[in-house]
Amino acid sequence: MPAKRYLIVNADDFGHSSGVNLGVIHAHDQGIVTSASLMVRWPAALEAARLAKTRLDLSVGLHLDFGEWVYKDGNWTPVYSVVPLDEPAAVRREVSNQISAFRALMDRNPSHIDSHQHVHLREPARSAALEAALELSVPLRGCSPDVTHCGRFYGQTAEGSPYLDGISSDALIETLLHLGSGINELGCHPGEGEIPNTTYADERALEVLALCDPRVRAMLVELRIELCGFAALPSLLTSNAVESPAR
């Protein structure tokens, strides 16, 4: 019998703006999004928290925000910076501050941790984020062996050029066909309407269309891939341990 496959569809940038919030909620209510990562520093974070609290099956984690960079003239140029990334103590303080802000907004701990533009995968942010994830007993994107992250569903190239074929329904279905066994996380960035202060704007509405396409949900059923959120991880891991005894 084939190994069971689970899929967490996680929407990044929740709280960035009302447009992003609308897209995330639409893709959850009408599509396959099961989880979201909250940017606690942005103006629409409170709105996002209010929307999430009425959707108990939507897992919500922390999207650490250390800054944003755009590829220009052959180099990555900062759009804004939250904290100097070469100062470990400052990075640790910022991680702690953003966890506290998350708790104030959501009245609980995050179900998982990741970061804007994957900054947490590089030191010293990696160590600071790992320390926080271990303390909270939650997964950290790309650093937790129980969850495999997939970033293929994205509408730009590595240098920020448009790549709309990457966020079509066909591309999403192709990604599902190649998911491995166990627990997978698919990243996405839905949004609707006007979305200010981002270099990833028009792509977000196209993501919503794909995430809500009935063909995508039908493929999940056909492939026997079970949707879940990060909040379900403890029970899934316990269940898998029981079903797979040591030999």
Describe this entry's structure for a reader.
The protein is globular, with a radius of gyration of 18 Å. It has a single domain, classed as Alpha-Beta Barrel (TIM Barrel). By secondary structure, it is α/β, with parallel strands linked by helices. The chain has 8 helices and 9 strands. The strands form 2 sheets. Strands 1, 2, 3, 6, 7, 8 and 9 form a 7-stranded parallel β-sheet that branches. A two-stranded antiparallel ribbon has the order 4-5. The relative contact order is 0.20. The chain has helices spanning 18-29, 45-53, 88-106, 125-136, 169-177, 202-211, 214-223, 233-243, and strands at residues 5-14, 35-38, 59-64, 67-72, 75-81, 113-115, 147-150, 182-188, 225-227. The model is unreliable at 241-247 (pLDDT under 50). Helix 1 (18-29) runs parallel beside helix 6, helix 3 (88-106) packs parallel to helix 4 (125-136) and helix 5 (169-177) runs parallel beside helix 7 (214-223). Strand 1 (5-14), helix 1 (18-29) and strand 2 form a beta-alpha-beta unit. Helix content is 37%, strand content 20%.
Helix and strand arrangement:
Layout: E1 5-14, H1 18-29, E2 35-38, H2 45-53, E3 59-64, E4 67-72, E5 75-81, H3 88-106, E6 113-115, H4 125-136, E7 147-150, H5 169-177, E8 182-188, H6 202-211, H7 214-223, E9 225-227, H8 233-243
Parallel strand pairs: 1-2, 1-8, 1-9, 2-3, 3-6, 7-8
Antiparallel strand pairs: 4-5
Helix pairs in contact: 1-6, 3-4, 5-7
